[in-house]
Amino acid sequence: MTLEEIARLAGCSRSTVSRVINHDPHVSPEMRERVWQIIKEHDFQPNLAARALAGRRSRVIGLVIPHPLSTIFTDPYFSVLIQGCAKACDERGYYLMLSLVLRQEDDTYQWLIHARHIDGLLLAPPLMDDPFVQHLLAKRLPLVMIGRIPGRTDISSVNVDNLKGAILATQHLLKLGYSKIATITGLMSLVGAYDRLEGYLCALREAGIEPHPEYIQGGDWSEASGKYAMQRLLQVTPRPDAVFAANDSMAVGAIKAIQAAGLKVPDDIAVVGFDNLPVATTIDPPLTTVHHPIEQIGFLAAATLIEQLETCTTQAAKVSVQHIVLPTRLIVRMSCGAALRRSTHPKTH
């Protein structure tokens, strides 16, 4: 089956068939439906390489994750994020290509930019002062960030409100009567980790509490780092009575370290996480956490990029920059001790 044969069956020109395949809007709905029906009936598979050469579009979107492979394939955050991106691409007839940037040298970046086997890029999550971003802007490659870089208001982004989410988690612990609240941060090269630390500090200072310097311990988002950070916190005097971990994986590590020390969660130390990943419901005790709409963020980021690409195709006007920030909410389970504290301190009327 060729384009000419499809055109003959549809009663149109070969160029019309080509425009339909390349999603050109200047084709009547009736003709578009007729061409696609013939394509489906004959199981015609357009040559993507030829389409890319003819229309200068591949309908492929790159998802760049500038993080170590050990993180990408062990942190459940990324699998959920990729699923959201893939759903948006599938619904709109695009393909998602995962690009793992293993090196930070310019030649790696230059290859991604110059190969042009992709129409645009999703960057998830961007690093502080990442040189890759400047390279992409210089080459005018469409880009959407999953997360944000301070000061870069010229690039579309989709993000969660990390600051308010951390404030919500810390305020919850304060309302339950905890006063010696520690935190385990993520990698501070990422804005999300910085924002969650700031939210923790803001909530404490609003309550008139200046955090103990040793109550702030660094992690790298992994369960192991949460365990080691919690082990350090257990050596601090006075010992914390609650911990806010910047993600669920580190919160799980913290719970395991507390239990390994012969202590109980939440009886001795309460724990709250961030993300609401599936592990939050399987850990014992179930984890109180901040819900992070990861899949929705991936979907919206890919949809935003596709909208930019389609706008560039159909309009001469400059594509507008969008900044989408999704809200968070607290999911209360057993690890924070809410039920325990309510039963210990019943309300009086």
From TrEMBL:
GO terms for biological process: regulation of DNA-templated transcription. Residues 1-55 form the HTH lacI-type domain. Pfam families: LacI, Peripla_BP_3. Keywords: DNA-binding, Transcription, Transcription regulation. InterPro entries: HTH_LacI, LacI/GalR-like_sensor, Lambda_DNA-bd_dom_sf, Peripla_BP_I. One of its GO terms (molecular function) is transcription cis-regulatory region binding. The keyword DNA-binding applies. It comes from the Bacteria. PANTHER family: HTH-TYPE TRANSCRIPTIONAL REGULATOR GALS, LACI-RELATED TRANSCRIPTIONAL REPRESSOR. This is Periplasmic binding protein/LacI transcriptional regulator. It comes from Chloroflexus aurantiacus (strain ATCC 29366 / DSM 635 / J-10-fl).
